[in-house]
UniProtKB/TrEMBL annotation:
This protein's name: DSBA oxidoreductase
Keywords carried by this UniProt record: Disulfide bond, Oxidoreductase, Redox-active center, Signal
MF (Gene Ontology): oxidoreductase activity
Location of the Thioredoxin domain: 22-221
Taxonomic superkingdom: Bacteria
Family named by the database record: Belongs to the thioredoxin family. DsbA subfamily.
A Pfam family the protein falls into: Thioredoxin_4
Record region (Disordered): 20-39
Keyword Signal included in the entry's annotation: yes
Amino acid sequence: MIAAVVLALGIGTVIGSNTQNTTAANEDPATTASPSAESNALADLARRDDADPFAMGAVDAPVVIIEYADFTCKYCGAFAEETLPTLIEEYIDAGHVRMEWRDTPILSESSVSTAIAGRAAAQQDLFWQFYEVLYAHTYTGDGDFSRDRLLALAGEVDGLDLAAFETGLDDPELAAAVEQEGSQSRALGVTSTPTFVVGEQVIQGAQPIEVFRQIIDAQLEEETSQ
């Protein structure tokens, strides 16, 4: 289903309905073109910080995908398990796409604790490795996001210092950072997860790789024609 969503910084074309959210989803099919100024506003959301532990891919990649997600969201887990590996293989490793994460804890108290856990892993430059392990659990697991389970999952990440990770779980600065970024996501109008800003467009839900290919390829073609 094609649905329109409004971000505070602009209007994007949104594809899909496979999301988890805190508000009722818009059930009216619609397609809204993105005016140039609004498209630029979406593109400007990318940080492109070479030292960002929550990003992967070339800092100067032509297209940036920003993932607004919740670690307890099964649809986010579906994206991580089914779509992201192909994006990495076809676009990120090739230097065409950069991926950036934004904490969007909207579902439960576990949304916050898992986001803090992600930041504890990021302190060791192992965010994406923990992301992979945690989302595999979210996608196929029993819904247990207790402290003990998070520690067990962290123990599956090669090279992770478990004692330092556990200390991070209680770090008030990490909790504050999660709250700040979550507030920024909500201020942009993100009310369901996963939501993706793909260059100048918005994708909502755990869409198949074909949806991402179509949008990315069109933006890469536009980039090369300039």
